[in-house]
Amino acid sequence: MLRHIVMWTLKRPEDAAKVKALLDSCKGLVPGMHEFDVGIKTEGLEANCDVVLVSTFESKDALAAYIPHPHHQGVVAQIREMAATRHVVDYNI
Questions:
Q1: Which residue, among 48, 46, 51, 47, has the nearest Cα to 14 in the 3D structure?
Q2: Mean pLDDT of all residues in 35-41
Q3: Which of 59, 68, 65 is nearest to 90 (CA)?
Q4: What is the mean pLDDT of residues 37-53?
Q5: How many CA atoms lie less than 13 Å away from 34 in the CB half-sphere?
Q6: How high is the pLDDT of residue 41?
Q7: Cβ contacts of residue 67 below 8 Å, gap of 6+?
Q8: Percent share of the chain, pLDDT over 90
Q9: C-alpha to C-alpha distance for 39 and 17, rounded to whole angstroms
Q10: Residue 66, burial from CB neighbour count under 10 angstroms (0-12, 13-18, 19+)
Q11: Cβ atoms of residues 26 and 76 within 8 Å
Q12: According to the model, what pLDDT value does residue 85 have?
């Protein structure tokens, strides 16, 4: 199993709900995706980023199928326009 976490700081934090909706459209996109949770920062709680994606894939191959998927790449292009920074960590679980 592989955990894939991506965090974004947005140019306009008020776009967080739009980014979440875009990411949520990627749920179940490829076989081997087991977990796919998108969160936006909650006022009053500590956060260094505006949006986070926590996902779990069955294998490197499942993640490798997700990354270039045309729908995912369309979402990436839209989020790239709204993001100021992006941080990623992938690790085995």
A1: 51
A2: 97
A3: 59
A4: 96
A5: 10
A6: 96
A7: none
A8: 100
A9: 9
A10: buried
A11: no
A12: 98
Strand 2-10: give its sheet, edge to edge. Answer: 33-40, 51-57, 2-10, 83-92
- DSSP label at residue 51: E
pLDDT band at 67 (very low <50, low <70, confident <90, very high): very high
**Distance separating alpha carbons of residues 41 and 58, to the nearest angstrom:** 27
Tokens of 93: 């679980």
Element at 11 (helix H, strand E): none
* Number of Cβ atoms within 10 Å of the Cβ of 49: 20
Q: Among all chains, which residue has been given the structure tokens 């270039």?
A: 68
32, two tokens: 């081997």
